[in-house]
From TrEMBL:
<dbReference type="InterPro" id="IPR013320">
    <property type="entry name" value="ConA-like_dom_sf"/>
</dbReference>
<dbReference type="InterPro" id="IPR023296">
    <property type="entry name" value="Glyco_hydro_beta-prop_sf"/>
</dbReference>
<dbReference type="GO" id="GO:0004553">
    <property type="term" value="F:hydrolase activity, hydrolyzing O-glycosyl compounds"/>
</dbReference>
<dbReference type="Pfam" id="PF08244">
    <property type="entry name" value="Glyco_hydro_32C"/>
</dbReference>
<dbReference type="Pfam" id="PF00251">
    <property type="entry name" value="Glyco_hydro_32N"/>
</dbReference>
<dbReference type="InterPro" id="IPR050551">
    <property type="entry name" value="Fructan_Metab_Enzymes"/>
</dbReference>
<comment type="similarity">
    <text>Belongs to the glycosyl hydrolase 32 family.</text>
</comment>
<keyword id="KW-0326">Glycosidase</keyword>
<keyword id="KW-0378">Hydrolase</keyword>
<feature type="domain" description="Glycosyl hydrolase family 32 C-terminal">
    <location>
        <begin position="431"/>
        <end position="623"/>
    </location>
</feature>
<dbReference type="InterPro" id="IPR001362">
    <property type="entry name" value="Glyco_hydro_32"/>
</dbReference>
<dbReference type="InterPro" id="IPR013189">
    <property type="entry name" value="Glyco_hydro_32_C"/>
</dbReference>
<feature type="domain" description="Glycosyl hydrolase family 32 N-terminal">
    <location>
        <begin position="109"/>
        <end position="428"/>
    </location>
</feature>
<keyword id="KW-0865">Zymogen</keyword>
<protein>
    <recommendedName>
        <fullName>Beta-fructofuranosidase</fullName>
    </recommendedName>
</protein>
<dbReference type="InterPro" id="IPR013148">
    <property type="entry name" value="Glyco_hydro_32_N"/>
</dbReference>
<dbReference type="GO" id="GO:0005975">
    <property type="term" value="P:carbohydrate metabolic process"/>
</dbReference>
Length: 639
């Protein structure tokens, strides 16, 4: 690998007039329920009805099961068989109109009005506004023609769409304006480094800058006339060189940025470049870090976290009470991996605290559907905020029919877990709570005996913020002898797999008969030495009757300390569920596509499918309002 790279302009060209378009139209976020019709064969509906009758007749209902909560839940169902009792064969559902899938649109997650969205780019706080740039296809609901959409917000929940920031209109980015990052220079100039997919699909690094950095909206962007500023160095494949990070200044006064790459086909790595003028970069002889057998690294991120407090940090905040997070998005497995370690700012080297949990082989931000994430330091609230995109798991033809694809997560604050010191804490930013209903439903100390399922009557259950805690008798836990050392969420039978100590949790987006459902739950597995390990899982396997949908059991282990209650928070938003266990130590995001459990038909349950323990549950449920996503009224704007 070369120690330096020089760049020269390959083609002289004129700057075409930048094309500006609004990223979407001011249409409503959701169609009326009266416009939704599902073309499911009548025979299937008859079968479903028969199964519901059979299930109702088989339920064992006892007055003793109707615990505290009055008419909040009408009955408690005890089941001695795996959840659900009856599983109908999957149906290949053919969608015939956009209205049939309009219910899948989120109500309070970020997404444009139409078409394809993916990687968040250049998030930043500037002059009173949060800015979010993102990869966007203005012409279709599938990948292609990648343009940078641009939206602004006061709170990262309600958004205004602005004209596109950049479009693919030069030879060096004609196949896509790909992932990039924002940097604010000491003089206040805002710049973007981004990857351009060139006409031959080679990945070239480019520079763009705000025409007027004193404009709070950052409306106009200009590409540097000397682009591209970086070509793949010797030894690096022309498609293995992408996603420049935010720049930071090192102790020698030079600026640094990192990029994702791989060498020898399988060794994922992060390259380090130095610069003094932002147009000429020098490649370090050594990589920041590399891990064998992890493949191509995308969207590399390096940032500090405090070991003593919860405030966010900037790269300049080095010291004895600081750890550094190195993160990469694995191009081969499509997961976002991170590790905790130390950073040498003089030699630009990063070292993991635990080599067995190195980047790409240890911890993940999210054990469900989540990718291409990026953090930024929010100086307005002194915090570090994480964005990522949550892809679809339905067929592309369905995305084309509904006219859109993919959603961004609710932005999360990120801090080090100072109790464990070995993982991060991710938590939805506090602003999302502004969408909570003023009143909430609460169920206290609900006794969940082995094999029990309790419906919670709350009305419509498709837009929710749920906080639930579960208590287990410690003596009962300690006295359990059965070992379950091989348990793993992803290889288990899901929520129907019964153990002595689990699963127990919450069922969301379920229809009344639970033929469709998404259980999110804890499972406690004991080792032969008596110690236990807790898992946090989400079981999509019965989330939809449509057999064309991808369905998995997601999850991972989560640390639970002595004296802690088992707790989870769930953000439910039609076709996306974000789950946070133990205050955000482990996070699991699911995409679900029910055909029956939609709008008013969606139900909520508590369950305990363990065989050997009773669980006491308490739960609060807020209805969530809709976020505002509108075009910015530029005609009346004055800075």
């Amino acid at each position: 690998m070369a120690s330096s790279t020089t760049t020269n302009r390959l083609i002289l060209h004129d700057e075409p007039q930048t094309r500006h378009h609004l990223a979407g139209s001011p249409v409503g976020r959701r169609l009326s329920l009266t416009n939704v019709h599902f073309r499911i064969p009548v025979s299937v509906l008859i079968i479903c009805a028969l199964v519901a009758v059979i299930q109702n007749q088989s339920q064992q209902i006892s007055a003793a099961d109707i615990l505290q909560g009055g008419d909040k839940y009408s009955s408690a169902t005890t089941f001695a068989y795996p959840l659900p009792e009856v599983e109908l064969k999957g149906i290949a559902i053919e969608l015939e109109s956009n209205a049939e899938v309009e219910w899948q649109r989120s109500a309070y997650h970020f997404q444009p009005d139409k078409n394809f969205i993916s990687d968040p780019d250049g998030p930043m706080y500037h002059m009173g506004w949060y800015h979010l740039f993102y990869q966007y296809n203005p012409e279709s609901a599938i990948w292609g023609n990648i343009t940078w959409g641009h939206s602004i917000s006061r709170d990262m929940i309600n958004w205004f769409h602005l004209p596109f920031a950049m479009v693919p209109d030069h030879w060096y980015d004609i196949e896509g304006v790909m992932t990039g990052s924002a940097t604010v220079l000491p003089n206040g100039q805002v710049i973007m480094l981004y990857t351009g997919n060139a006409y031959d699909l080679s990945q070239l690094q480019c520079l763009a800058y705000a025409v007027n950095s004193s404009d709070p909206l950052l409306l106009e962007w200009k590409k540097y006339e000397g682009n591209p500023i970086l070509f793949p160095p010797p030894g690096v494949g022309y498609k293995d060189f992408r996603d420049p990070s935010t720049l930071w200044m090192g102790p020698d006064g030079e600026w640094r940025m990192v990029m994702g790459s791989k060498h020898n086909q399988t060794i994922g790595c992060a390259l380090v470049y130095r610069t003094t003028n932002f147009t000429h970069f020098v490649l370090n002889e050594e990589v920041l870090h590399a891990v064998p057998h992890t493949g191509m690294w995308e969207c590399v991120d390096l940032y500090p976290v405090s070991t003593t407090h919860t405030n966010g940090l900037e790269m300049k905040d080095n010291g004895p009470d600081v750890k550094y997070i190195l993160k990469q998005s694995g191009d081969e497995d499509r997961h976002d991996w991170y590790a905790i370690g130390s950073f040498d700012p003089v030699n630009d080297k990063w070292y993991p605290d635990d080599p067995e949990n190195d980047v790409g082989i240890g911890l993940r931000y999210d054990y469900g559907k989540f990718y291409a994430s990026k953090t930024f330091y929010d100086q307005h609230k002194n915090r570090r905020v994480l964005w990522g995109y949550v892809g679809e798991t339905d067929p592309p033809k369905d995305d084309l029919l509904k006219g859109w694809a993919n959603i961004l997560n609710i932005p999360r604050s990120v801090v080090l877990d100072t109790q464990t010191g070995t993982n991060l804490i991710q938590w939805p930013i506090e602003e999302v709570e502004k969408l909570r209903s003023k009143k909430y439903d609460e169920f206290k100390d609900v006794e969940l005996r082995p094999g029990s399922l309790i419906p919670l009557e709350i009305g419509t259950a498709t837009q929710l913020d749920i906080s639930a805690t579960f208590e287990i008798d410690e003596k009962m836990l300690e006295s359990t002898l059965e070992a379950d050392v091989l348990f793993n969420c992803t290889t288990s039978e899901g929520s129907v797999g019964r153990g002595v100590l689990g699963p127990f949790g919450v069922v969301v987006l379920a229809d009344a008969s639970r033929s469709e459902q998404l259980p999110v739950y804890f499972y406690i597995a004991k080792d032969t030495d008596g110690t236990s390990k807790t898992y946090f899982c989400a079981d999509e396997s019965r989330s939809s009757k449509d057999k064309n949908i991808g369905k998995w059991v997601y999850g991972s282990s989560v640390p639970v300390f002595e004296g802690e209650k088992y707790n989870m928070r769930l953000l439910v938003d039609h076709s996306i569920v974000e789950g946070f266990a133990q205050g955000g130590r482990t996070v699991v995001t699911s995409r679900v596509y029910p055909t029956k459990a939609i709008y008013g038909a969606a139900k909520l349950f508590l369950f305990n499918n363990a065989t050997g323990i009773s669980v006491k549950a308490s739960i609060k449920i807020w209805k969530m309002g809709e976020a505002e996503l509108d075009p910015f009224p530029l005609s009346g704007w004055s800075s």
